[in-house]
Design brief:
The chain is mainly beta. The protein has one domain. It has two helices and 13 strands. The radius of gyration is 20 Å and the shape is elongated.
């Protein structure tokens, strides 16, 4: 239960506007997106593939070289299908005899005369169908070495229309950039930048430091929001169309 709650908090944070006076449209879209994200988050946890703002090594979640069977209690055990130096693992989570999770591995070293389960493998990609309609909704990309893979990118289709609505990019295991299509029109319109820092208690936290928006739909950023210690402190606007903010408004740091 705690894992599910943590994933919902970490994921919903990317879609709920953190600002002093958000525009009505973004508030509405955030409410709609929040419900979709929490549904997907719950589905991901059920699939045994939950993630958070900090990604753990994949071998701790059954994704490493030894992860040949489906998550405990979530699907039938499966064997790897080897093709050259790659392998695919298919998992039927809801036991409808159709795969819902696909794990793609790169085989490492000499494979001649060896069984698939005996060959070192590096997880490179994971695809998930979270609403069981036989369409991929989440794709996660990994890199590293066998048993020590870390996620570097995650793409999510929040409204199940076959298009990516949210892309989360990771650096050193933490989210550092989130790209959002809040209009669900196939175009990114919001970018969130995160940075590792220390909180008041000296703990390492990953905080939102800047949000960039395309409010006109032309593909160019024309509004910037700057955050300090998690609070919105300054807003910048591009009024000339040159791609840089030229008008600023400062906010009270104590404002919520």
């Amino acid at each position: 239960m705690s894992g599910t709650a943590n994933y919902c908090r970490a994921t919903s944070e990317i879609d709920v506007p953190i600002c002093r006076a958000p525009c009505p449209f973004e508030v509405v879209m955030s409410c709609v997106t929040f419900s979709r994200v929490c549904f997907i988050a719950l589905s991901v946890v059920i699939l045994g593939c939950g993630s958070s703002a900090k990604q753990t090594k994949s071998n701790k979640s059954g994704d490493g070289a030894s992860g040949l069977a489906g998550p405990a209690g979530s699907g039938e055990p499966v064997q790897l299908e080897v093709d050259g130096n790659t392998a695919i693992q298919r998992i039927d989570v809801n036991r409808d005899k159709r795969p819902d999770v696909y794990k793609f591995y790169r085989l490492v070293g000499d494979t001649a005369g060896k069984k698939a389960e005996d060959i070192p493998k590096m997880l490179i990609r994971k695809e998930m169908d979270v609403n069981f309609d036989q369409k991929i909704d989440i794709v996660q990309y990994f890199r590293g070495e066998p048993g020590k893979e870390v996620m570097i990118r995650e793409e999510m289709d929040l409204d199940f229309d076959g298009r990516v609505d949210t892309t989360r990019r990771y650096k050193k295991g933490f989210v550092h950039l989130v790209e959002l299509d809040l209009g669900f029109d196939g175009r990114v319109d919001t970018w969130r930048l995160y940075q590792l820092t220390k909180d008041e208690a000296g703990r390492t936290v990953n905080r939102l430091i800047e949000k960039r928006k395309d409010t006109t739909g032309d593909g160019n950023v024309n509004e910037w929001e700057y955050y300090t210690a998690g609070l919105l402190t300054k807003i910048g606007v591009d009024t000339t169309g040159d791609g840089a903010p030229d008008r600023f408004r400062r906010l009270d740091k104590k404002a919520k």
